[in-house]
Amino acid sequence: EGQLVESGGGLVQPGGSLRLSCVGSGFTLLTYGVSWVRQAPGKGLEWVSGINGHNGDTLYANSVKGRFTISRDNSKNTVYIQMNSLRVEDTARYFCARGQSTNSFNELENWGHGTLVTVSS
Amino acid sequence: QSVLTQPPSVSAAPGQKVTISCSGSSSNIGNNVVSWYQQLPATSPKLLIFANNKRPSGIPDRFSGSKSGTSATLDITGLQTGDEADYYCGAWDSSLKAVLFGGGTKLTVL
To answer: Sign of the CA dihedral A77, B34, B85, B5?
Structure first.
């Protein structure tokens, strides 16, 4: 089934930037849609962004549009999310999740353990 | 505020059945498939149901999903204490061009 491992989280000041990475093992991320989903402490799930495995098309939630950028490096089997202009309300655990097909963003069948992002002064 | 509406909590006794509802609109549940996820305490979410009523391999048939119009339901029969978790519905929204999750329902097995 494979595994997803996120990294890159940490403490950042409001207005700062972070880049999260999601490395896949046991399967080729290129053949799947990959999403980033976040969960604020004690709160529910929020879908943040997705990238189409076939054509690289990208999608964003309105809450992050214009500030976050999702991308991938096929040679490294890795999906990234560049997060700029971070706000306190972006504080959350960020999960990387793989869909069932190249354009699947809602049927997330494989999840990483997540990486914690804290935005605070 | 989630666009998909779930009850905050449900509870039932071991062995009983519980139903979790998820209400949306024509731009999401009404015209797209629904998924359900289980999140046990301090773990990552796990796909329980996809395409409204299909189970991934390894998910017991005690878990079942259905959809009617702009609402979906998750049924769990033969409740076990190990089923205590948060449950989330999810659906693609054609207007927002984004995935929406419900606010989550905390299941307590009394």
So the answer is: positive
Q: How far is CA B64 from the centre of its chain?
A: 9
Q: Which one of A45, A106, A107 has the shortest CB-CB distance to B45? A: A45
The string of pLDDT tens digits covering residues B75-105 is 999 999 999 999 999 999 999 999 999 999 9
State the best of A1, A43, A45 to mutate against chain B, taking most chain B CBs within 10 Å.
A45
Tokens of B89: 């519905």
Residues in chain A predicted with pLDDT less than 50, given as ranges, are none
B96 interface with A at CB cutoff 8 Å: yes
The CA distances from residue A21 to A91, A97, B18, in Å, are 17, 12, 38
On the 0-12 / 13-18 / 19+ scale of CB atoms within 10 A, A32 is buried
Q: Residues B53-67: pLDDT tens digits? A: 999 999 999 999 999
Mean pLDDT in residue range B26-43: 96
Residues of A in contact with B98 (CB under 8 A): 47, 59-62
Interface contact flag, B101 A62, Cβ < 8 Å? no
How far B63 CA lies from chain A's nearest CA (Å)? Answer: 16
Query: What is the C-alpha to C-alpha distance for residues B64 and B75, in angstroms, rounded to an integer?
Result: 5
